[in-house]
């Protein structure tokens, strides 16, 4: 029962992390306008995401535009797109495998096979969390380097957007859920080993007859 609870908790965390990964990928708030100097009140705020950029006016009006050409985008942005999509697909595959291998389902009757399937699901979730962590940390490092670079003009400097914090939380949920699935993948201990040892013990402890007596029987 304890392992079943771990699997259910791990699957729940992974589902939340998977939904968060999709939402974070679609959010345009990866990079936001930086407030530098005394210019705190500005007429507009710029949001930059993986798929679009938005301009928020001081009146509250938001105008968003999808990037026109994918090939014209920077390489780091293209890599971030690819890694987030691959991570979400791996998490979806791991979720389907985890449902099949869960001990509360009856898709597979063999208990050792269920444990292996659950172990594969947890490993895939951990891999998805690691892949999602790469573009988030990469983007954050780029923003921080440009912010403290004196050669970058002030209007082009950005700050860490809320989507990056959601991305870190999403990766943590995928990691934690995958670890719980791996922990709950232990097969239930049965009496097979005991019975095998009982059957094998008489043969080991059987008395050995002398060679002369054996020849006499022959």
From TrEMBL:
Residues 191-218 are annotated as: Disordered. The chain crosses the membrane at residues 79-102, 123-144, 164-182. Keywords: Cell junction, Cell membrane, Membrane, Tight junction, Transmembrane, Transmembrane helix. It comes from Polyodon spathula (North American paddlefish). Its main location: other. Gene3D superfamilies: 1.20.140.150. It is a multi-pass membrane protein. It is found in: Cell junction, Tight junction; Cell membrane. Belongs to the claudin family. This is Claudin.
């Amino acid at each position: 029962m304890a392992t079943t609870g771990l699997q259910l908790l791990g699957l729940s965390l992974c589902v939340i992390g998977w939904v968060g990964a999709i939402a974070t990928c679609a959010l345009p708030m990866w990079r936001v306008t930086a407030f530098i100097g005394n210019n705190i009140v500005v007429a507009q705020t710029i949001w930059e995401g993986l798929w679009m950029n938005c301009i928020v006016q001081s009146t509250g009006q938001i105008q968003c535009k999808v990037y026109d050409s994918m090939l014209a985008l920077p390489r780091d942005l293209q890599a971030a797109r690819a890694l987030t999509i691959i991570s979400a697909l791996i998490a979806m595959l791991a979720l389907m495998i985890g449902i099949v291998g869960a001990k509360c389902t009856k898709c597979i009757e063999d208990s050792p096979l269920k444990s292996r399937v659950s172990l594969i699901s947890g490993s895939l979730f951990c891999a998805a969390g690691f892949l999602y962590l790469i573009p988030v940390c990469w983007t954050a490092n780029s923003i921080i380097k440009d912010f403290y670079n004196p050669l970058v003009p002030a209007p082009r400097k950005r700050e860490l957007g809320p989507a990056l914090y959601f991305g870190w939380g999403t990766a943590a949920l995928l990691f934690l859920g995958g670890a719980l699935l791996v922990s709950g993948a232990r097969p239930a201990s049965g009496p097979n080993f005991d019975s095998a040892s009982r059957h094998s013990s008489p043969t080991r402890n059987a008395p050995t007859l002398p060679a002369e007596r054996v020849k006499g029987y022959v």
